[in-house]
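User: Please predict structures.

Assistant: First:
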Amino acid sequence: MSVIDCDYLPTDKVAFPPELALLIVRKASAMAAAFEEQALDQLTKDARRALSRGAEPRRVIREMRL
């Protein structure tokens, strides 16, 4: 058996149901929105903390890579 001719690779194409694809896309979108909200909250919290400690806004921008 050569490297290219492998028994463990699937040979048959599997039909992917459109309904399943749609549900996966919706779930991924919801997960991305939740992650975006968490990231926004954390970045805002970090920026406020830095500003309250007297950091210059320009420095906060640079350090947060905004």
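Second:
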Amino acid sequence: MFRKQMIFIFLLLPVFSLGQEIDLLLLNREYKQALQQIEERLAVRPQSDLYFKKGLALEKLLKFEDAIAALELACASDSVNPVYWEELAEAHSSLGNYMDAIACFQQAIGLDGQNLTLQGKLAKSYINLKAYADAYAYYQRINFQDSTNSYFNRYFAYAAYRTNRLEEAASLYEKLLQQGTRDLSVYLNLATIYSKQENMNGAVRACFYGERIFPDHPALVLKRADTYFLFKDYAKAQHPYERYLAANDSTFDVLKNYGICLYFTKFEEEAVSLLEQCYEITVNDPIVNFYIGACHKKLKHLHESIAFFKLSIETATPSYLAEIYHHMGQVYGWQREFKASIEAYDEAMKLDPDKVELLFEIATTYEEYNFNKTLALNYYRTYLLEAGEAAENADYALDRIKRIKEELFFEE
């Protein structure tokens, strides 16, 4: 009996030693050697744990497609092991396959529903997929069970922020801020939230806290400058803009905002120089053109001032706005709301006087309105005069002028 037991133990020893050898190879990051051992064993006897270890090794070698194939075999062989589903989800996440990752995490949670780590990973996959409402729901459940976990709270705050729960997000971010978190996004997001809540002091304070941990970080310096600018505190915005521009590449928006700050702090010549750089980038920004004009006005460069004020007026009117009013006038006409239709056409004409065909449409609308044929007659005449040979509806307009004259004659 003893002899049989010893023979059985010796028969098992190679199995145990081979399994331990693979684990040791994985532990020592010798993934290629581990894969070789795994393949040799799988050729003899396929096993779910071997497929799982194969998937782990392939993930470490960044061969995620092959890892997914191996982990799917592990899940197929042992579908009730949540660890296998979790690892398969992780492999999908590495490739950005967040929908597949979510499905796998849900399988794992179905087998291990109390595992907060799994719920957190599922919630993060929802964030990666920009499904913020779903992410918020899971992080809310996690927070109910563990409200002190800063890792979960970072993402919970972000999910609350992205679902417009600004009060809750600010409260969560404040706790992380007081803990001295080294996550830059906490300070930037909190500043953005306070700006949306029209709380300039809170936004600036978040930036200052961040700058204690990340001295001179350009994102925080710029966020503070933009916050002051947003609340029209141009004097305070000027210095952080200068700090940012001294160490970073200039962008259109930064140059534009800094130039406006210089205008309000009475550095008109410097402001013109900066704003003209913006003008060279794009000539169609009405704000830039206005402040260049305003600077020239203060400098008594009156000709330049008028030129830029005119340019500001021209560029302030979007080219498509007249077309919008045109379409709106047609729609009102179709609804037989003639007064509103004519008002819309008038706005279109004010915005784009070159749209002479609008005169024809106004004339036909007045005819349908049928309260003053003389106005319709005058608009037909003006249309023919303004459009000249380019009039697309000249024959119709001439015919209507003739008929309206006849009708007016008999009405007298």
